[in-house]
Write a structure and sequence with these properties.
The complex is a heterodimer of chains A (565) and B (283).
Chain A: E1 4-15, E2 18-29, E3 33-37, H1 44-52, E4 59-64, E5 67-68, E6 79-82, H2 94-99, H3 105-132, H4 138-184, H5 189-203, H6 210-223, H7 239-251, E7 257-261, H8 269-286, E8 289-294, H9 297-303, E9 306-311, E10 314-319, H10 321-326, H11 331-336, E11 341-347, E12 352-355, E13 358-361, E14 371-377, E15 383-385, E16 392-401, E17 406-412, E18 417-422, E19 431-435, E20 442-445, E21 449-456, E22 462-465, E23 468-470, E24 485-491, E25 496-498, E26 505-513, E27 519-525, E28 528-534, E29 543-547, E30 554-557
Parallel strand pairs in A: 3-8, 3-9, 6-7, 7-8
Antiparallel strand pairs in A: 1-2, 1-4, 4-5, 9-10, 11-14, 12-13, 14-20, 15-19, 16-17, 16-19, 17-18, 21-22, 21-24, 22-23, 24-30, 25-29, 26-27, 26-29, 27-28
Chain B: H1 2-21, H2 24-45, H3 62-68, H4 70-73, H5 76-105, H6 110-121, H7 128-141, H8 150-176, H9 179-187, H10 192-203, H11 205-220, H12 224-229, H13 237-246, H14 251-275
Helix pairs in contact in B: 2-14, 3-14, 5-8, 5-11, 8-11, 9-10, 11-14, 13-14
Classes of the chains: A alpha+beta (565), B mainly alpha (283).
Chain lengths: 565, 283
Amino acid sequence: MSEKLVVLENICKSFGDQEVLHDFNLYIDRNEFVTLLGPSGCGKTTLLRMIAGFEQPTSGKIYFDGQVINDLEPNRRPINTVFQRYALFPHLNVYDNVAFGLKNYKVTRDNIKHNIVKDYSKELEELKAQLKDKSLSPEVKEEVKNNIKKLTEEIKTKYEEEFNAEVERRLANIEKEYNEELQKGELDERTLLKIKNEKEKCAKKLKLSKYEIDKEVMYALKLVHLEEYKDRKVDTLSGGQMQRIAMARAIVMKPKLLLLDEPLAALDRKLRQDLQYELKEMQKKLGITFVFVTHDQEEALTMSDTIVVMNEGRILQIGTPEMIYNEPRTRFVANFIGESIILDGVVPSDNTVKFDGATFKTTYKGFSKNEEVDVVLRPEDLLIVPQSEGKLKGKIDSKIFKGEEYEINVITASGQEYSIHTTKDYELGTEVGLTIDPENITLMKKPGVNTFSGAINADGNVEIAEDIALEYGDEEKEELEEGTEVVVRINTADVLLDDIEESDFTGVIKDIKKRDLYYDVYLKVGNLTIVSSTTKVHHVGEETGIWIKKEKVFVKVEESEEEDE
Amino acid sequence: MNNLSATTKVGKIKKLKTTKVYVIPYLVWSFIFLIIPVFILIFMAFSTYDFSTGANVEFTLKNWKYVFGAESRTVFWPSIGKSLLISFLVTLLCLIIGYPTAFVMTKIKARYRALIMALLILPLWMNQVLRIVSWRTIFEILKMNRNELYIFNIIVAMTSMYLPFMIVPIFTVLEKIDPKVVEASYDLGSNKVNSFLRVTLPLSLGGIVSGIIMTFLPSLTQFEVSDAISYNNVVLLGNLIYTRFKGTGGFNVGSVFSLFTVLFTIIGFILLLRVDKEGETLI
C-alpha cells in the first residue's frame, strides 16, 4: 500500500470565468493531520468539497487509494465531512443524528453492485454501441445480443457471489462475538441468542441490527463525551456540543479520511483551544487521516503535522508548523503566520546579511554573493539593548500594553519601524539599540529567482559553472567582453524540465519541496543547485533535462564590491 | 447591576405596551366580524330566532334534528360526502403537482423562480368569480359541460385555484432547508432518493401540512365553483349554506351547516399547530 492516500494532480477549478484553483498539485499521506490554511476565498473549502465529491474539478485528477475518484458520487467515497456550522439534522435527536449513516445499509449493497458493474461497464457499452450499428446482419446482431445477455448474467452471479461472501463474513463475525459474550457471561444465554438471531437476520440483508448500531453510536458518543445527551434534540445543544456531535456522526462511519471544514470557527476562544487538543488526540487514537481547513493560523500551528498555506488558489508553502513559522518562504506566508517584519537585505557572503545599514550574522549558507533577499524578523526575537551594544540604533516611538507583554515600536535613523514584544517597560523617546540572535534571522529567496555568479566565455555565452554555458538575452543585448564577471538571474518558473534529448543540459533531482508556487524541484547540476518551479510531479533521484530560453536569462555586470565602513 | 436590569425591564414593558396598541384596530375588527358572528351562529343553531320577523326566541334542538333527520338525509349527507371527496381529490392533486414544483423552484436560478412565482400569484389578483366563469366557458368550448363530467370539471377548476396555496408554503419550507444538511446526508452514504426520504421530506412536513390545510378547508366550503360549473347540478356543503342564507328564513338550519365548517377549521388549525409550532409556514 502506498503511503499516499490522496493525490491531487493538476487540479483546476473555475466557477464561471473565475478560476479558484490553478493547476493544483498536492498529496496527503496516510494518518497525516494536514491543514489547509489561507485567507477566505483562497480556494481551500472548494478543494475540500472536491475531495468530498460535492464539486467536480474543471480539469485534473483526484486519486484516492490509488484510484481516480473524479466521477465517484460523495455517498460512495469512504470519506466523511465535519461541516462548517455542523449541518446536523434538525429533525432528529442526537442519537439518530449519529446513527444516520449506519442506517444506510442499502448503500453497502449498492456499492457491491457498483464495483462489479464498473469492471464490466466498458465491455457492455461497446456491445451496446455495436447493436446501434444498422449495417450489422441479423445473425451478428443476435450474437451481440447473446453476448450482452451472457455478460449481464455474469454480473448477476458475481454480485450474488460477493453479496454472499459479505454475508458469510458478517455471520462468522456475529458467531465469534456471540461466543465471546457467552464466555464473559454478562448476559444470560437466552438474551444473547435473541440478539444473535436478530443480528443474523439483518446480516443476511447486509443491514446493521439495532444492537450493532447502538454499540457503534454509543462508542462514538463516548468518544466525544456526550453519552448522556443521546435523547436530546439537537437545537437544545450548545455550539461546542453540536460540534462534537458532528464529529461523532462522521467518525462513526469509520472513514479513511475525515474532512473538517473550519469546524471550530463558530466557537469561543477557550472552547476552541480545548477542542483543538481533543481533535488532535482523537486523530492519533483513531488513526484516521484528517484534512482540516482553517483561516486561523494559531489553530493550524497547534494541531497539524503538515500545513499547506494557500492563497488565491495556489500553494505557497507546505511544511511542518515549525518550518512554516521559522522559515517562511514567501512574504505572504511570513505575514500570514504570526506577526513579522519583512525587510530587503543583501547577502555579502555566507552566514551574513546586510539590512538597514548594519551587517548581521546568520545561519544561512549557499546564497550567491550579493544576492538580494527578504529578511524576516519576528517581534519576539528582537532584543532591546543599550544603544552602544546594539547593531541597529533607534528611538522608542510608541508602546502598547498588551497584558502579558508590551508591544514597543522602535524607529531607526533610516525611518524603518521595528515592532518588538518584550516584558520590560521602556520610556517613550529612549535611545536604544537592537540585536537579533543569528538563528532568529530568516532569509527568503526573492520569489522564484535563481541567482548565479558567472563569466562571459569565448563564444559570447555566459558560463555559470565549469561546463555549463548558457546563451543569454534577446537581440538587443549588450555585447560583453570575454571574462567579464556577471550576475545571472533566471526565474525559477523559466527553468523548464524536459526530456533529456531535447534539453541544454541535465541535472539530478536532489529534493522536491511542496512549497512556494507549485513544487520547487532542486536540481543538482555539477556543483550548482538550480531550482525549477513546476506543476508536474517529479521524483527525487530522477535525471531530467533542463532547458532555459535564452530570453529568460538575465545578465548583469557585477559591480565592484563596496567595502563596508 | 440590579438597578440596571430593573430599568431595562421597565423599558421593555413600556415598549411592549406601546407596540401592542397598534394591534387594537385589528382586534376590534376581528371581534366584531369574526368572534361575535360565531356566537351568533351558535345562538341561531340552537334557537328558532328569525331575523326577518324578529322576536320569537325559543331554544330548541329542532334545527339539529332536521339536519340529522330523515328529511335532509338525501341532501345533507350526500353533500358533505361529495364535499369531502372533492376536497380530498383537489388537495391530493395540488400536492402531487405542487410539491415537485416547489422542489424545483428551490433548485433553479432566482430569475426563473420569480417567473414561476409570478405565474402563481398573478391569477390571484383577478376576481375569483371571473376566473370561475372563464373555466365554465373553457369547458363549454371543449364540450365538457355534461352531467357525468361535472365533478371532474369542478376538481380541475378548484385545483387550479388552490394550487398556489399548496406551492407557496411548501416552497417557503424547502427554501429554508440548509443545503449543507442534504449534503451531509450524501456524505453519510445516502443516495439521492434516500436523502430525499430521510432528510428533505421530513424537514418539509410543516409546509406540506399547512399546504394541505390551506387547500382542503377552502375547497370544503366552495360553492361558487360547483354552482357555476355544474349549473347548480352538484350540491356541495358550501351550496347548502349559501342557499340557506341567500333568502330569509333558513338561517337556523344554515347555522348548523356553518358550524360544521367551523369545526373542520378548528380541527385543521390544531393539526397545523402540532407540526408547525411557530406558524412559519402560514406564508
